[in-house]
Amino acid sequence: MGFYMNFDEIMSIADYKVRLSRIYEYFNEKKRLNHSKAARIEFLTNVRYIEIYLKPGAKILDIGAGCGEYSLYFAGNGYDVTAIELAERNYETLKSSVMPGYDLKVFNANALDLSMLKDASFDIVLVMGPLYHLAAEEDQLKCIKEARRVCKKDGKLFFAFISNDMVMMTEFANDNDYLMGDTYEHDTFKVKDFPFVFMTVDGMRGILQKAGLHSLHEVASDGLSELMVDNINQLSEEGYARYIDYHMYACEKPELLGYSNHILIVCDNA
């Protein structure tokens, strides 16, 4: 409640870094992907797709790394990882979490300016957060362009988005009066872009196509898990494993793609 009471104040902050840092004073990014069985599905799914393309000695760039869930995981598995995070709280949390022996470099920097990194330096580039926050198409394209610049030719890029249409359903599931409110446009059902940017599947495809990218996979990262939190969290370990099996089977089905809060699109940097 306190976050939304400060809506106007936060939105009025001109400095993007300060505004982003204020957002993550309210959202605990460190726990988002690991606090429950249901929450873990997004991470497990994304890691599975990243590992399809990982080769020994691969260099990974994690742009918008948050508190480092992916960076720490891959550094812990012996990969050379560079993490970029702008929000101050997340950056400090990630820095303090780096274990001795990890080949993990952390920069407090903006996804729109990766000038500290050389062209074609990374085999795998993760853009798992910036497009949650960049509302202007110009900025989205600039972010994608920078990610492509530092990715090796024929390297792989991973873009995460938040699905506009599933957000409608998760909000409605938590509030029977949601559809009567003013947090979305009633004619188009476009959710207002705050505190995050919400895109339709067509919008996600469109911005990547405009950037000249070809998609290899379109993945419903967490599927219906945000609507089924209690059911999933009550599963036995065996039942959870079976649910994960089903989710992995279904997560690339086109007819189910929009029914996921988070969507991963994997592209070839050809």
Blueprint of the fold:
Blueprint: H1 2-5, H2 7-11, H3 16-26, H4 29-32, H5 37-53, E1 59-63, H6 69-76, E2 80-84, H7 88-97, E3 104-107, E4 122-127, H8 137-150, E5 151-163, H9 164-174, E6 198-199, H10 201-210, E7 214-220, H11 229-233, H12 237-250, E8 262-268
Parallel strand pairs: 1-2, 1-4, 2-3, 4-5, 5-6
Antiparallel strand pairs: 5-8, 7-8
List keywords for this structure.
single chain, 270 residues, alpha/beta, Rossmann fold, 8-stranded mixed beta sheet, 12 helices, 42% helix, 18% strand
Helix content: 40-55%
**Oligomerization state of this entry?**
single chain
Judging by the overall fold, what is the CATH architecture?
3-Layer(aba) Sandwich
Q: Kindly report the average pLDDT value.
A: 94
State the CATH topology. Rossmann fold
Profile the largest sheet: 8 strands, mixed
Q: How large a portion of the residues is in β-strands, by DSSP E?
A: 15-25%
Count all strands and give the number: 8
- Which CATH top level class fits? Alpha Beta
Low-pLDDT ranges: 1-5
**What is the global morphology?**
globular
Q: Return the structural class.
A: alpha/beta
Q: Kindly report how far apart the N and C termini lie.
A: 45 Å
Order of helices and strands: HHHHHEHEHEEHEHEHEHHE
Number of domains: 1
Radius of gyration: 18 Å
CATH superfamily: Vaccinia Virus protein VP39
- Please tally the helical runs, counting DSSP H or I stretches of 4 or more residues: 12
Question: How would you describe this structure to a colleague?
Answer:
It is a single chain. It is globular, with a radius of gyration of 18 Å. Strands 1, 2, 3, 4, 5, 6, 7 and 8 form an eight-stranded mixed β-sheet that branches. Helix 6 (69-76) links the parallel strand 1 and strand 2 (80-84). The protein contains twelve helices and eight strands. Helix content is 42%, strand content 18%. The protein has helices at 2-5, 7-11, 16-26, 29-32, 37-53, 69-76, 88-97, 137-150, 164-174, 201-210, 229-233, 237-250; strands spanning 59-63, 80-84, 104-107, 122-127, 151-163, 198-199, 214-220, 262-268. With 270 residues, the chain is of the alpha/beta class. The longest helix is centred in the first third of the chain and has 17 residues, at 37-53. The chain has a single domain, classed as Rossmann fold (3-Layer(aba) Sandwich), CATH 3.40.50.150.
